[in-house]
C-alpha cells in the first residue's frame, strides 16, 4: 500500500500562527460545512437565505467572505481587493477562493507588505463570519 499525499492546503492551515478557532473555521469552510443561510434554507430550515449584513445577496460562502459590502470593505482596507476581485471573476465557489488565497506563493503574498499574510487572510475571513 502506498502512502497518500496530503493536500497542501491542510499543511498550510495547521501551521498558521493564529488561534485554533480560526484554523477550525478555515477547515470547516474548506469542507463546505459552514451553516451559511443559503445552506440552512436548502436544508428546509425556516431562515431567510439573504445576507444579514447587507441584505443585497444570498448568504453563501462566496458572498459572505468576498462579495458582501462589509467583506469588500475589509479586503480593500487590507489592500487585497484587486486580487480578490480578479479571483471572483473566475466564478469559483467561496471555498475555492479562500483555498486559492491561502495557497498563493510567498512572492505573490509579499507584495501586500504584511509579515504574516496567510494569518491575516485566515483571521479576516473568520472575522467576517463572526461579525455577521
Layout of strands and helices, then pairs:
Blueprint lengths: L7 H7 L5 H11 L6 H6 L18 H7 L1 H9 L3 H8 L5 H9 L3 H5 L6 H15 L1
Helix pairs in contact: 2-9, 4-5, 4-7
| SSE-based structural type | mainly alpha
Order of helices and strands: HHHHHHHHH
**Termini Cα gap:** 46 Å
Radius of gyration: 15 Å
Our count of helices gives 9
How confident overall, as mean pLDDT? 89
Q: Total strand count, please?
A: 0
Main beta-sheet strand count, sense and barrel state: none
Shape: globular
Q: Please give the domain count.
A: 1
Q: Considering DSSP H and I runs of 4 or more, what fraction of the residues is helical?
A: 55-70%
The poorly predicted ranges are: none
Q: Beta-strand percentage?
A: under 5%
Structure characteristics:
132 residues; mainly alpha; 58% helix; RVT-Znf; Reverse transcriptase zinc-binding domain-containing protein
Amino acid at each position: 500500500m502506498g502512502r497518500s499525499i496530503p493536500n497542501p492546503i491542510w499543511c498550510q492551515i495547521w501551521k498558521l500562527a493564529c488561534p485554533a478557532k480560526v484554523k477550525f473555521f478555515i477547515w470547516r469552510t474548506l469542507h463546505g460545512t459552514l451553516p451559511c443561510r443559503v445552506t440552512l434554507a436548502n436544508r428546509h430550515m425556516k431562515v431567510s437565505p439573504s445576507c444579514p449584513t447587507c441584505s443585497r445577496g444570498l448568504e453563501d460562502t462566496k458572498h459572505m467572505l468576498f462579495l458582501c459590502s462589509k467583506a469588500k470593505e475589509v479586503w480593500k482596507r487590507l489592500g487585497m481587493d484587486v486580487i480578490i476581485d480578479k479571483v471572483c471573476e473566475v466564478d469559483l465557489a467561496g471555498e475555492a477562493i479562500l483555498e486559492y488565497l491561502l495557497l498563493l506563493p510567498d512572492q505573490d503574498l509579499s507584495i501586500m507588505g504584511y509579515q504574516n499574510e496567510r494569518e491575516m487572510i485566515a483571521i479576516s475571513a473568520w472575522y467576517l463570519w463572526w461579525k455577521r
